[in-house]
Amino acid sequence: MSQPPAIIGLGMTLMSVTAGPGSYTLATEAVGVALADAGLDRGDVDGMLVGSSQGVREDRLGVALARRAGFGDLRLLEHLEIKGATAVAMVTRAVLAISAGMARTVICVFADAPIGPGKAAGSTYAHSGGNSGIRGLERASGVLGSVPTFALIASRYLHASGGTEADLCAVAVSARAWASGSEQAVNRKPLDEDGYYASRMISTPLRVLDCARPVNGAVAIIVSSARSAGQEKLTIEIRGMGAVHPMRRRRAGGESWFGGGGQAVDDALAMAGTSRASLDVVELYDPFSVVTLCLLEEYGFCESGQAGKFVRGGGIAPGGELPVNTGGGQLSGFYLQGMTPLAEAVIQLRGTGGDRQVAGARTALVTGIGGRIDHHEALVLAREAA
Amino acid sequence: MTPPQETLPGAGDWLAAPELAPDAADPVMTPLYEAAARGALALPFCAACATPLELDQYVCDACGASAEIGTAGRAWRDVPLAGTVHAATLVHRREPGLIVALGPYPVIDVELASGHRLVLTTATPSGQAPDIGVPVEIAFRTIGAVTVPAVRFPGPHRRPEIPDRRLVS
Predict the structure, then answer these.
(1) Rounded to two decimals, what is the model's pTM?
(2) CB neighbourhood size of B159 (10 A)
(3) Strand spans (E) along B24-104
(4) pLDDT by residue (tens digit) across A225-271?
(5) Which phi and psi (to 5°) does residue B158 adopt?
(6) Which of A125, A196, A299, A335 is catalytic?
(7) What interface predicted TM-score (ipTM) does this complex get?
(8) Which B residues 123-162 touch A at CB under 8 Å?
């Protein structure tokens, strides 16, 4: 039976912090899990969207996945690239393609394997970026990987907001509190303020516990207008979609590093016909603690400069007013770009979150960001009405 | 406070290994590197309305004037070697083989007097990140065979050390 496009399948691999299979192998595993979850065969799928990390990697996931993972002819097959916003955007693209009659069932896949034998993820990222363009000048100035850039963002944000490291600490501690109840999270050991301040500095003011936890892993999400009998409880409606790509300029007269992302959330909420107050969980793309603070303000959950106070007061932690990143996010859960918040939203709305399940969660906001908070994609998801 | 650093003997630039030398032949950036080689900082402006453009920006967002590479619509001009700190960090993670500094190093987002913003490090070894708003001068450093702009401090660039920032509300 044909219905509005909805999420009907979720497949996740184990999130590994040690070297192992490459991204194609991981992606293939996630595809298999998602198909089984949805009760589908490969032949039921007529569309595939693929996302991968930027940078030069021998094993970077691409459209070859369709062939390698055993699919037949597809009507839709694309590699999408909007940096970190890609995963969330894939769901939007799947909905648009299905709504236009260009596909019926689309599987969206993201995989990454930055951890290699004897090589930490940070080293992999540090060697990515090349020597040309603006990045060439920045890399020559010591900006390797994304941490120094987001440390500049943190420096600027704390200056502009009047915040302190205590705000960053509160984000990290909240994320860990959520992660402690998540089977998928790689950092589940309890964390308090002393533990946070004792962690090593990476790039002031960001400590290692302010930074995303890279993993080797994959997630696949199936979007379809088809419904299988008996799968109703697993079906998640896609009620709202929005995106914005603010063109902040690198010159005097305004903030260069953050601001302008709110339209994506406004549009998604408007399409869904709901409001911030009706959201049960909020799953943000949080590669660094400071990003959570920026986004809480940009997305209208806190007034400008007030996110730190809100988080320090327990606002986003378990039991708080606004459950945010309920699987530990990318800081303590796992860093698989936009698939981290997307998968967690599906888990929460299905009610399968175990110890970190938010009671009665029916509506979720999911956002993905790309680049240096340059691209915003938002979805409003909801548990399908009984 | 992190102590000042020494430079590795024979390492060339104090911070970056030659592998990090930028591509000076990249047409997007060539005017900047050519100017740096003569001790000047050249940056792009809209030839029509003089709005400061980003280094890779070819259409002015203020007036709409456009320029292909090498045409007059985008004018590179030498700018004053002065600015202020817009944001700053002290990077503690040093990637082996790429970073040769022996200790943490600063990365500074400079707002130039011309209005442009550039992310740079210091011209000479430094183990401190400056405070936001501090005045800076632009100097130069050389990685491999490529000269790039860098930061120099004309005066004090740190407030007195705060023992525990958690105590600051």
Answers:
(1) 0.94
(2) 9
(3) 42-46, 74-78, 82-91
(4) 998 777 777 899 999 999 999 999 999 999 999 999 999 999 999 99
(5) -135, 140
(6) A335
(7) 0.94
(8) 129, 132, 143, 146, 148, 150
